[in-house]
Amino acid sequence: MKRNSTKLFLWTMCFLALAAHSVQAQQYELIDLGTLGGPRSVAKRISESGIVTGWAQLPTGHQRAVIWDQTGNILNLGALPEPVVTEGVAVNDAGQVAGLREEGSPQSYQSYSWENGLWTPIGVLPGLTDTIVADIDSAGRIVGRSLIVGPGDPDRAFIWNAGVLTELESLGYDSRADGINDLGQVAGASSASGPTGYARRAVLWQDGVIQDLGVLPGEDFSQAFDINDRGDVVGSSWHVTSPQFLSAHQATLWRADGRVVDLGLTPAPPQGTCAANFPFWTANIARAVNDVGQVVGQAQCVASGGAKAAFLWDPEDEIHYNLNDLIPPGSGLDLIRADDINAAGQIVGTAVNAEGYLRAFLLQPIATCSSDPNCDDGLFCNGAEICVGGLCQDGDNPCPGQGCNEGTEACLPLTCDNDGACEAGEDCSSCPADCVSGAGGSPACGDGVCQPSSGEDCLSCASDCRGKQTGNLNNRYCCGLDVDCADARCTAETWICDDTPSVPYCCGDAVCDPGEDQCNCQVDCGEAPPIEANCTDGVDNDCDALTDGADPECACGQKADACLIDSDCCSEVCKRNGVCR
User: What is the pTM of this model?
Assistant: First the structure.
């Protein structure tokens, strides 16, 4: 009883602390990711770059594995041979998906790796019949478990790498792998004995060696679901001998330094049976942890028939937040489970809409602030941002009715004459018809340069980016997709690879940026020379749409012909007065 009273006191103190900090809590934009035309969808994982995977229903009701890209577009990953159900379970930045197929009655589970439209079977460990995948790392390694559906043989954890399925050792009986980080560390659970003496423990596999992570003080069992690149592991601990509201799972963090942390309970809404009995949801399972240490998962009120809520635990204040309290009111979605969070703080999971259908959601962090300087984005032409109620708001236009020069931070009179030339007093904002703008470094497939930072790779631009996508899996690679320009294969032989990041540009801002030149932005970059300045640089120096040898001016000059450099002259001598010798 003493332990229970102590825990009750700590939870109450946590509740009071939350009330004191709620004004400063991170707020989120809520995005319903949509479906394939049916009523339901679920989001399972999000990559560091913002690719989401899960499943969505077709108008026919069939469930298909999908990915949502960074702009929210949904892609049906296609049907495997006669599946009842397919599901995307995890995804990495390369767009590789660990997927699952379910069919039959009783259900049968088979797992796959999906990449570029191709489903590759994971296989199954010897002696077992089914495979369920759980996570994938940046290198495409997949972890999960093989099993026989129903009571019987124990589950056995595995790691799949480049077509090879390897069993992970157990504590003696069963095992399951649920998370993998980019260092190859794997988190999951295992037990030392069978059902009659069952005691599941959260475990960590490092270089194939298993480690029992233990449980929270006073608990009996534990389970791990995710691991970040720092080596922090999250999951839950629980026991079966206490009163009901203490018998459920407690969200648990196993830090890389060996500490085991009770993440506490999620505050319940002010109405309902759970809140009437106790001011917190009574069960919490941590599902994911990002590299910053933020944890997300699911809270449940055992006493009120299983009501659920998605939660966030923030390491900065060590406060447990109900995510429904951090989104705009009246959203029409009830967030019941958070399954993943990336380093940018984007959260994905499952909600229920007003019609009772499951819906995949994405939470985008909204910039928070305590004063106006916290909101300053460093730009002049979009106005001075201000902090209102802890949230950043856009500033007013500093140049109403005028143009604006970002480079000089000055307002300009509107002089746009739409003559096709960007002139003094015009810029890409005030006169877009005359002054070019863009993301910078825009790729031109076929120019002989692979530009991964601009979206080129060996699949989208095979003429520029080297790659090998056939033969032995271990020898396959794709420049711009799974390897970058630092890989020697991308610059072997005559291949050229340039990973220089794109730089936004705006003609008329008094800065000659990448993407601007003397041809498209003389007001920033200066006037072009009257003739081709260099006949071997691959550049149209004089802006006559003719480059190097295609420009008649690149024929060597005769005596007294105009020249800029020695190579302009057949004699290889350009005299000081600008004519050939």
Answer: 0.63
